[in-house]
């Protein structure tokens, strides 16, 4: 199908056009870019005409850290992404996803983060990628999740991997990369990844380096003030293997982020990172408040343990006094964790409340005194662990502080978006529009070309997404029309389900998937397999990185 986009300002990492352009899309590729003209006869030659009305025409945005692994088939999720301009998501994050294996472990352990997958039951990365072909409006790339790899080979063992186990893990990683995975992810605060030592991680990063892919890590021991130790481990892995690294959701004080990235550069480590434009985090409730030695066990056993009064008393006595240190929380942790998703219908009323507020409400409802620890454990038992929370931090950062991090030349856009829950973190529905509104219009930290590098071209180059990330003749027509004066997020911590505004028209592979702000029903999305990137895009992206 031939499509004409009239009168749009072309913007990518190379810069912004001096004037309005007409862009012709033929099939899935951009066929021609030229000065805007008014020619009714020419318009009639195209099957479809989109009036750019002076809006910015940008390359489709790439969410480099997404948890839409199973949710991407939901039209509401597709709409939420496309209204932000996101045309590609990268899943398999934090070391936990469906492939390799049968998907059962990820479906149970990450039920409150990724949810289940509607069709994948095995077959590895190739089968998982195939599940996205022609079934969604948004593209999906995936990483090989190291925690899932460990689970497939070593089960729930907390011991160091044996040489034989390491060999089997390396084969699974290499096979996943050969099937098109974009890299390897680790989640070193989650189980079983938390039990992998540096030697194991380096062994798995070897095939990543060999394939020219990327080692992506949710670092060990949390973030913020603890970031230095995690960065040091990643640097050691990079030096040993030669792998390029990417730091997941790198949130810390701006000066610390920049200092640590400068150290990596001095060490010759090729590093990038993603960070969402919010301060608070989000994860499963079990991760910050329960010991990994417990949560590595089957869910039914964990639930039984939490329901046992003696075991609960032991946790209260021996474990809970330590979580302010182990999870980066303060003594006021019950007021720092807000319930975003609670699977138990009996606790439906608790969505949007902190653990402290929920305990007070539960006490009033029951007529008995219920403290924060008992309330949190009661919710986990009733929900069979399927609970996620928005997590406050000790020091909220200002927009200026976030802009200082996100304007770094190694920054790549990633929402860490979780679509499970009635009161989710707003980052899932707001991150990419907030990047544009906050960084360009409000903070003036980036120009539009720099913003295109942040939200599109750097990820396309870093992860090998092929001819994407630029508005150029011959490139895949993943395209977004942006109203520069109107684009903004409406989702907030109080009202997290609001859709972004200012992006109403989006194409994926040359097919309109969002028109007038609504889904068209087309599903041209596909599983994106890691492939070569053109020299032209790599050169342009490098220039943009140097200028940012």
TrEMBL record:
InterPro entries, alphabetized: Amidohydro_3 (IPR013108), Metal-dep_hydrolase_composite (IPR011059), Metal_Hydrolase (IPR032466), Metallo-dep_Hydrolases_sf (IPR050378)
Amidohydrolase domain sequence ranges: 49-254, 400-513
Highest taxon above the source species: Bacteria
GO terms, molecular function: hydrolase activity, acting on carbon-nitrogen (but not peptide) bonds
A Pfam family of this chain: Amidohydro_3
Protein name: N-acyl-D-amino-acid deacylase
Source species of the chain: Agromyces cerinus subsp. cerinus
């Amino acid at each position: 199908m031939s499509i004409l986009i009239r009168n749009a300002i072309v913007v990518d990492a190379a810069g912004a056009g001096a004037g309005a352009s007409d862009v012709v899309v033929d099939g899935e590729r951009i066929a021609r870019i030229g000065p805007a003209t008014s020619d009714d006869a020419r318009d009639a030659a195209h099957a479809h005409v989109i009036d750019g009305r002076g809006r910015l025409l940008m390359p489709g945005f790439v969410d480099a850290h997404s948890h839409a692994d199973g949710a991407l088939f939901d039209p509401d999720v597709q709409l939420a992404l496309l209204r932000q301009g996101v045309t590609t998501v990268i899943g398999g994050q934090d070391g936990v996803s469906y492939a390799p294996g049968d998907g059962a472990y990820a479906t149970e352990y990450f039920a409150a983060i990724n949810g289940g997958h509607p069709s994948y039951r095995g077959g590895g990365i190739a089968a998982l990628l195939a599940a996205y072909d022609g079934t969604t409006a948004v593209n999906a790339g995936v990483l090989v999740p190291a925690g899932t790899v460990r689970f497939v080979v070593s089960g729930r063992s907390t011991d160091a991997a044996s040489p034989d186990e390491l060999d089997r893990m390396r084969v699974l990683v290499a096979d996943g990369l050969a099937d098109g995975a974009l890299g390897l992810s680790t989640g070193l605060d989650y189980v079983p990844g938390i039990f992998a030592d540096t030697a194991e991680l380096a062994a798995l990063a070897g095939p990543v380096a060999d394939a020219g892919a990327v080692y992506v890590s949710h670092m060990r021991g949390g973030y913020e003030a603890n970031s230095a130790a995690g960065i040091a481990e990643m640097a050691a892995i990079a030096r040993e293997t030669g792998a390029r690294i990417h730091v997941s959701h790198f949130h810390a004080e701006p000066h610390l982020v920049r200092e640590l990235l400068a150290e990596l550069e001095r060490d010759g480590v090729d590093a990038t990172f993603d960070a969402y434009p919010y301060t608070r985090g989000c994860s499963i409730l079990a991760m910050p408040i329960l010991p990994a030695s417990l949560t590595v066990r089957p869910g039914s056993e964990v639930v039984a343990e939490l329901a046992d009064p003696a075991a609960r008393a032991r946790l209260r006595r021996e474990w809970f006094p330590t979580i302010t240190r182990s999870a980066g929380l303060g003594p006021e942790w019950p007021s720092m964790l807000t319930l975003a998703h609670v699977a138990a219908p009996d606790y439906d009323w608790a969505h949007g409340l902190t653990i402290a507020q929920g305990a007070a409400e539960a006490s009033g409802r029951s007529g008995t005194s219920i403290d924060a620890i008992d309330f949190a454990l009661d919710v986990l038992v009733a929900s069979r662990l399927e609970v996620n929370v928005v997590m406050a931090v000790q020091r909220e950062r200002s927009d200026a502080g976030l802009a200082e991090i996100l304007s770094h030349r190694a920054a790549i856009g990633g929402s860490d978006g979780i679509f499970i829950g009635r009161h989710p973190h707003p980052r899932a529905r707001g991150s990419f529009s907030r990047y544009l509104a906050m960084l360009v219009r409000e903070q003036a930290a980036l120009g539009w070309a720099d913003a295109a590098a942040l939200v599109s071209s750097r990820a396309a180059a870093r992860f090998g997404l092929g001819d994407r990330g630029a508005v150029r003749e011959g490139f895949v027509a993943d395209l977004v029309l942006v109203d520069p004066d109107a684009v903004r997020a409406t989702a907030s911590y109080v009202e997290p389900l609001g859709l972004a505004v200012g992006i109403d028209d989006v194409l994926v592979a040359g097919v309109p998937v969002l028109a007038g702000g609504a889904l068209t029903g087309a599903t041209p999305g596909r599983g994106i397999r890691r492939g070569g990137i053109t020299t032209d895009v790599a050169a342009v992206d490098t220039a943009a990185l140097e200028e940012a």
